[in-house]
Structure formats: structure tokens, C-alpha cells
Amino acid sequence: MALGACGEVKNETAASTTTATTTTAKAKADPASDMALARSAVLSATDLPGYTGKADTSSGSMPESAKKEFATCLGVSSTVLDDKAGEQKAESGDFDKGDSTVSGSVTIDPLASDIDDSWKVMSKQGVEPCLQGLFKAAIAASAGTSGDVTIGDVTVDRFDVGVGTRSVGYSLKMVATSQGTDVNLFMDLLFVARDRAGIELDGVNVGEPFDRVTELGLVQKMYDRIGTKAA
Topology of 3-226 in CATH? Predict the structure, then answer.
């Protein structure tokens, strides 16, 4: 459930998005090689024994209005939620085990400066209030048109990921009420930058936070598979 499409469930096989637009600036990017790298690095079923890939059953995605509000809150024109010309992106789809869901994505940008910009936005001080609104919109989109779901206050805290030299994590906690029953929802967002590559992992659980050791290990796997190939 990559953040750019929270609530959207994809097939277990990594999906890909390729844009035909190319950058006019100097770049080391080779679209075919970059896409191959993204696909080889993103999470797969072999990384998650005991988890089940979930078929695409959702018609909703992150609302464009929520993306714009997030960018406005941060004081920028675009964020990691917005597609960039020339980027190559592979998404793992969602993997479930009990009440836990995990997904990841790998994006290879044509220029290192593109990832640098994304890193500056995701790691800047004071991003937490902006993520509160974004996460709330994501859960609302996931709930769809159901009128019996009420979303309560959202709290977001930063935590250390410790993968590479540029990594950051944010942990969300919120209460959703449906038919008079309160449910505690937890979601972790991890973002790692390496050369021209951006790695995202989302871990969601009900009742308690997603297992931190598991998600850190999964991010490390994607980071190691990229290696220096995106330099």
C-alpha cells in the first residue's frame, strides 16, 4: 500500500509505471535499466514468507486534493506522491498476514537531484503535522463511501530507520469508529534515499504497531539490492 495510493491494493507481482517524457538535463538514466533495477529491488513474495499477496479489490486511491494539500502544507510544488518525468517505479502490491499489511515501492529518478529534493521534503523538521492530514485522507479514501466510519485524531511521530545515510520513518496512530466500535489503527511510513533511488515501505496493523524489526529488515533488503547501481 504505497503511500501514493493508500487504500489501493495491487497484485502480488510488482507493477510498473514508465513515462515517455525524458529530461533535458544531463542524466545517467537509462529507462530500461532503471526499470529493471526497480523491479529487482522491490519487495517480492520470497521476502515475506507467511504473507499472502492480495488481489486488487479497491477502486480508490489517494485523492488529488489530499496530495495538493500535503504539498501546500510543506510549502513545495510537488512531493514524493507526485509522478516525475522520466522516473521508473516498481510497486510490490500489498502482502497480508492476519491484521498486518506491508507494501513497498522503489523509484529510480533520472537525476540524483530529484531524489535529493524528495529527501529534503520527507526529512524536514515539522513535516509531522502535514503527514497527519495526509494519513487521515488516506484512511478516509481506504474506507471508501461507507458512511458509518468516523476517523478520530491522528498522531504522527518520527523514528530512526538507520539504513544508509539518508533514512527516516514516521509512525501513525489513530482511532476509527465503525458501528459504535473503536479500532486502533497503526501505520508506519519508511523512506530511504540512495543515489538516484527512493525506497518507500508502508507497514499497517490493527490493535498494535507493525513489527518494527520486520519492516527495518525489509527496507534493508531493498537498499542492499539497489547497491550502487543507481549511482
Answer: Protein Transport Mog1p; Chain A (3.40.1000)
- Using an 8 Å Cβ cutoff, are 110 and 86 in contact? yes
pTM for the whole thing?
Answer: 0.82
Q: Grid coordinates 481506504 are at which residue?
A: 142
User: What is the rounded distance in angstroms from the CA atom of residue 143 to the CA atom of residue 36?
Assistant: 34
Digit-coded pLDDT (tens) for 76-102 = 887 777 778 899 999 999 999 999 999
Q: How many whole angstroms separate alpha carbon 81 and alpha carbon 66?
A: 10
- Half-sphere exposure for 26 (CA within 13 Å, toward CB): 0
Distance between CA atoms of 175 and 36, rounded to whole angstroms?
40
| Count of Cβ atoms closer than 10 Å to residue 65 Cβ | 9
Q: Coil, strand or helix: which one is 210? A: coil
